[in-house]
Amino acid sequence: MNDLYGLAETVVKEAARRGITLATAESLTAGLISATVADVPGASQILLGGVIGYALDVKRGVLQVEGIDEGNVVSADCARQMAAGARRLTGAKLAVSATGVAGPDGGTEQIPVGTVFIGCAYGDRIWAEEHHFTGDRQAVRLMTVRRALTMIGNCMKGGQ
């Protein structure tokens, strides 16, 4: 977890320096991205809030994700809409989202356990990355947090 703290610390410091606020929309990580950022002193300067959209009804009702059902909730489209919804709800400059299958169950042939989509909404861009992580449930969740924090850092620097 030390490397996660280091990544989160970098995110908090860089976001504070740039005047960037952050929001999250989390499914499989269930708040772990926000919690990791919140572990860093000074996080209250940048972290506005987040939504744990574990249930499809929350994704639809709170985050206003449209055109998604149980068959495509683990998708780039869902991740993009979740990030956009978190940014809209909180007024944050940057929002990150995560949706996927952490396991040990829930995977299919088309979407196996470890499939994760991480979305980012920043400026006029909204995009998502697809990842295929391996390991047990906790490992998939931690790798998702690590990649989400890295993605936030890259977004602030103007890249993906």
Notable features of this structure?
160 residues, 41% helix, alpha/beta, Maf protein, single chain
Largest sheet: 5 strands, mixed
Query: What would you give as the CATH superfamily?
Result: CinA-like
Number of distinct beta strands: 5
- Integer average pLDDT: 95
Number of domains: 1
Backbone CA Rg: 14 Å
Order of helices and strands: HEHEHHEEEH
Spatial gap, N to C terminus: 23 Å
Model description:
A hairpin with a 2-residue loop joins β4 and β5. 41% of the residues lie in helices and 21% in strands. The mean pLDDT is 95. It has 160 residues and is α/β, with parallel strands linked by helices. It is globular. It has one domain: Maf protein, CATH 3.90.950.20. α1 runs parallel beside α5.
Provide a short characterization of the protein structure.
41% of the residues lie in helices and 21% in strands. By secondary structure, it is α/β, with parallel strands linked by helices.
Topology (SSEs and partners):
Layout: H1 2-18, E1 22-26, H2 32-38, E2 47-52, H3 56-61, H4 76-90, E3 94-100, E4 115-122, E5 125-132, H5 137-156
Parallel strand pairs: 1-2, 1-3
Antiparallel strand pairs: 3-4, 4-5
